[in-house]
Amino acid sequence: MIIDMHAHVVAPPELYAYKAGLLSHRGAHGKGNPGVPAARIEEFAQQNIAIMDSVGTDVQFISPRPFQGMHSEKPGKIVLWWAEAVHNVIAEQVRNHPDRFQGVCQLPLLAGEPVTVAIPELERCVNELGFIGCLLNPDPSEGAWTTPTLDNEYWYPLYEKLCELDVPALIHSAGCKNERETYSEHFITEETIAVLSLCKSQVFQRFPTLKIIVAHGGGSVPYQIGRWRAARFNQMRNNPNLESFDQSLRRLYFDTVLYNKESLEFLFKIVGTDRCMFGTEKPGSGSAQDPATGAWLDDLKPVIESIEWLTEQDKRLIFEENAKKVFTRFKMPAKV
User: Does the pTM exceed 0.90?
Assistant: First the structure.
């Protein structure tokens, strides 16, 4: 089975028109009704299934498109209403195609507010809609950097709830209003900060069953690992009980949303194939064709299969087994 654990909902424009309305009236007209016709939700689900079939993907774990999350918008209630609307669309696609889709929610974190504000929607998605994981945006301020890093106790109530519900969190930044970065560049910045803050923390000692996946191959960290190894070695001279940076890094999981063979191969060598799981974000940022070959950059299954030194067991771990181990709520429906 080929499980793509990092994918985003393909939804009709009627859903995003609802978002535009929320931003326009800022909640003055109430929550309203998104009014997305069931037929249109199914039409766009079929478009996604056709893409999946074209590249041999059996199941996608679909979540809201992060750059649409508008975490820093005010008042916060419109962010919560938007998250609820998107999650309901995802839930309908999952209900209609439980053998092809599984739901992952985006935590509706709000800039400047406690992390607990997102917990009721997380509980609804898991307990009522049957979702199996969540996206965690480490910068709800969307480029203002006013939220504590992930090692801070600010995040502890969320970590406690994730352990209680037994759902993993995929670290995935969202929008960015900082003129120094596009939202896609901001993804890598925040994922890098997330890895480094968690690796220096006591989070996994405090929450030993917490499951964290880092999107886009871990930001820049695996490719700059010499710098972080050096820093940890110097710290270990004064505190020999510290674990190595490589040991800290292996407390995390990583996806394969990297669009070239060399980076994928390096990631597997640095963190191990037992810590990596197949993700493509297809369709998404990597949906472009190489003009030299005509290949789609986000058609990653053949790229991974072309890495000569990977064993069949390595490939099983990447394509299926790691996702099943981490997303313990994932259950394929019984075939009739």
Answer: yes
